[in-house]
Amino acid sequence: MRILSFVAATFFCVVGCTFYGVEALNTFQQQTTNEISADTNANIQKLASANPLERTEAACKLGKARAVAAIPGLIQLLSDDTPVEQPVCEEKENWRGRGMDKTTPGEVAAVALSQIGREAVEPLITTLRSSAWQARANAAFALGLIHDDRVIEPLISATRDPEARVRAKASWSLGLVGDHRAVEPLSVALKDADTRVRSQAAWALGLKGDERSVEPLILALRDQDEKVQSQAAWALGLKGDYRAVEPLTIALTASHEKVRSQAAWALGLKGNANAVTALILALRDPNANVRSQAAWALGLKGDERAVEPLRNALNDPDAKVRKQARWALDLRELKMGKRVKMKEKDLDVDVDVDVDPEVKVNVKPEVKPKP
């Protein structure tokens, strides 16, 4: 009897490893050997429900439970792009930075698989070869949330996927992996025909501490689309590289106010006095957000040339500009050793940059990327 059990287990391993990998299979066998809870079994069954909301809720619960036994069902759900417009997962609200008013079962399944973790890597990699682009996009998204060296090369390959939405998700995921191999394919993605892909690649390169990303991002400042330009400016703001100063200064004269605002923010992070004159001119920009961001940047510069223009900005018709100019002048006083009263809420200016239709990055002095 023991011999028959051993033979059966060996056969199961040979077949199972083809689809899930040795590590995933071992964990799966361990969980199936033990008694799976009734709730987990019930939720696995609900993944095939005719009700999309029920499928989505089940995926959410299985991810929270890190139910390895649910991997096959969740993988199958990745291609499900049925709109669900009711709140489902509390966790999902945190992913997007807003209440989840719309999602799909496939999207939530991707998050669930990322919560399960390493055991889901091989099935997700296999899904990158699915005929359904929705499954490939959700698989690429999930792989970026799992810290595992196995995801790098498959994600690089996915940046060449025939579907732009898959390429965009793969670029986003490569932004999260700390691997130098991602820099070159992301630089190539900056030349993609699709705006979403180029924008996402710029965001991803902003998180790479690799000097090879600077020149491609400088070129992206001249992209035909303002979203790509502003995202490239954001990315260059995170680079401690003097080569970005002149291109960002030129970007202060861009036609779109969002690009000008983002360029001002980026120049504020550069320890270079060459941008001061251009930032002073930006205090007279027709757009209040640009003027406010320029005041913030000049506050970090602490340059004597900016004092009088900042004092003039205290009379700006926009309250946000006046507040930021006051902060900049007070910061200079603090640096000179003088006592001034400053409120914590006055210490920065928000600039939101779209990374894709579903993703926003908060680009205050601190950066908090969200998928």
Describe this structure in words.
The protein contains 20 helices and three strands. With 371 residues, the chain is mostly helical. It folds into two domains: 1-147, no CATH class; 182-371, Leucine-rich Repeat Variant (Alpha Horseshoe). A three-stranded antiparallel β-sheet has the order 1-2-3. Helix 9 runs antiparallel to helix 10 and helix 18 runs parallel beside helix 20. Residues 1-22, 24-34, 92-99 and 342-371 have low confidence and may be disordered.
* Structural class label: mainly alpha
Question: What spatial form do the alpha-carbon principal axes imply?
Answer: elongated
The total count of strands amounts to 3
Helix proportion of residues, in percent? 55-70%
Number of domains: 2
What profile does the largest beta sheet have? 3 strands, antiparallel
Helix and strand element order: HHHHHHHHHHHHHHHHHHHHEEE
Topology:
Blueprint: H1 2-33, H2 38-46, H3 52-65, H4 71-77, H5 90-96, H6 105-116, H7 121-127, H8 133-144, H9 152-158, H10 164-176, H11 183-189, H12 195-206, H13 214-220, H14 226-237, H15 245-251, H16 257-268, H17 276-282, H18 288-301, H19 307-313, H20 319-335, E1 352-356, E2 359-363, E3 367-368
Antiparallel strand pairs: 1-2, 2-3
Features:
2 domains, Leucine-rich Repeat Variant, elongated, mainly alpha, 371 residues, disordered C terminus
Summed up:
Helices cover 60% and strands 3% of the residues. It has 371 residues and is mainly alpha-helical.
